[in-house]
Every structure is written in C-alpha cells, then in structure tokens.
Amino acid sequence: MTPQEVLKKVVLFKYLSPTELDSLASRLQKRDLPKGSVVFKEGSEGQEMFLITKGECEVSITRNDSKLVLAELGESSFFGEMALITDKPRTATITALVDSEAYALTKTEFQGLLVKEPQLMARLLMAMSEILCQRIQATNENLETYFLINRAIVDNEQFRRLYIHSQLKT
C-alpha cells in the first residue's frame, strides 16, 4: 500500500487535499514491525508517530506488576501522535501483535511542515484536536462509570463486611 493510499484511510488526515496528502506522504518512512516487537515503551522519549498499514498493535500500560491493555489498533489506525506536539514521555507501550507494517512521521518532519506548509498543518492540527477531544470525552465517561461502580460498592454494607472479613484473614 502506498503512503498516499494509507493517508486517505486515516481519519487524522480527513481535511487534507490530495496535494497535501502527497506532500505529507513524501515525508513518511516505512517500518516493519515483527510480531512481538515493542515499537516503544511507556516512559520513553518520543520522536515519531506511526500509521498502521498492515497488522495489529496493542496499546498497554503497566502499573506495579499488572499490565492493562488499553486498545488494540489495526489498519489505518495511528499512535504516538502526542510525541509530535509535546516533549513528554510516552504514555503507553506499543507492541506488534502480528507481523505488521507502519509508516512513521518524525517530529523533525512534522516541525518542518509547520514552517513550509502552514495551511496543511492547520488542517492536520484541527483533526488531531478533534480526535484528542473525543478521547478525553471517552475517558471522562469511563471515569464516571468507574466512580459510580466504586460508590455503589462502597455504599453496599454487605460488600464492606465481606471485604473487611477477607482482609482479616490475610
């Protein structure tokens, strides 16, 4: 699949014209992601984002000794975009679930586009903002659900007794 074909399928680039897609495609670097390979680790420095052209990748975080899978991403998905706009460490680990292929856009190329093609970048950043807002909204909904479940458990006297009893045995 050519970079242009990939870009047309990615919602992040929905506002770009065919000419702008071509300009962006010329800046992408193809990457093979063998099954089981870690694309990047949570906490590492980020210098690029990735567009999946083939395969699947897992997004996970680790807390203490527990791994929490946040998402599984397939063809036309992207990840690592926050590295293009911030110097903060990666917030998750990405692992290829199967042999996969992706295109990478480096921070250097991204910043070059900001200077050389401001209209392209304005449209790209608009789409990125919309996507990040959707993710924040989904996170807020999940937090509300977890809060309500937690409150229901805490308010349930039978559960509290069971919990206290189980703690006394350990």
Report on the architecture of this protein:
- The chain has 170 residues and is α+β, with helices and mostly antiparallel strands.
- The chain has a domain of 116 residues: Sandwich (Jelly Rolls).
- 47% of the residues lie in helices and 25% in strands.
- The strands form two sheets. A four-stranded antiparallel beta sheet has the order 1-8-3-6.
- Helix 1 packs across helix 2 and helix 4 packs across helix 5.
- The radius of gyration is 20 Å and the shape is elongated.
SSE layout:
Elements: H1 3-9, H2 18-25, E1 29-33, E2 38-40, E3 48-54, E4 57-63, E5 66-73, E6 78-79, H3 82-85, E7 93-96, E8 100-106, H4 107-116, H5 118-155, H6 157-169
Antiparallel strand pairs: 1-8, 2-7, 3-6, 3-8, 4-5, 4-7
